[in-house]
Amino acid sequence: MAAAKKKTFSVTKAVKANARERVGTPSPKIVLPDDKAKSERRASKHKVTLQRLLQREEGR
C-alpha cells in the first residue's frame, strides 16, 4: 500500500482559515433573477431565420 501523501503548506488556505476564525463564515449570497434579462435571453435564444422573415412578409 502506498504511503499517505504529505500535505504541503498553503498560505492562502491558512489566511482564509484565520479570517474565518476571527470574523466568522461569510453569509451565503442569494442572487435574485432579473426578469428583464431573463426575457431577453429567452427571446434571443431562437433567432429568426431569413426564410421565416420572408414568409412573414409574404403572409401580410
Could you characterize what this model shows?
- By secondary structure, this protein is an all-alpha fold.
- The protein has a domain at 34-60.
- The chain is 57% helix and 0% strand.
- The chain has three helices and no strands.
- The longest helix is centred in the N-terminal third of the chain and has 13 residues, at 11-23.
- It starts with 10 loop residues before the first helix and ends with a helix.
- The model has no long low-confidence stretch (mean pLDDT 81).
The secondary-structure element order is HHH
Residues in β-strands, percent: under 5%
Radius of gyration: 27 Å
Number of strands: 0
Large-scale geometry: elongated
Count of separate DSSP helical elements: 3
What oligomerization state is this entry in? Answer: single chain
| Class inferred from helices and paired strands | mainly alpha
Alpha carbon gap, first and last residue: 78 Å
Sheet with most strands: none
The low-confidence runs, each spanning 5 or more residues with pLDDT under 50, are none
Helix content: 55-70%
Mean pLDDT: 81
Describe the structure concisely for a colleague:
It contains three helices and no strands. The protein is mainly alpha-helical.
Search tags:
elongated; mainly alpha; 60 residues
Ordered list of secondary-structure elements with their pairings:
Layout: H1 11-23, H2 35-45, H3 50-59
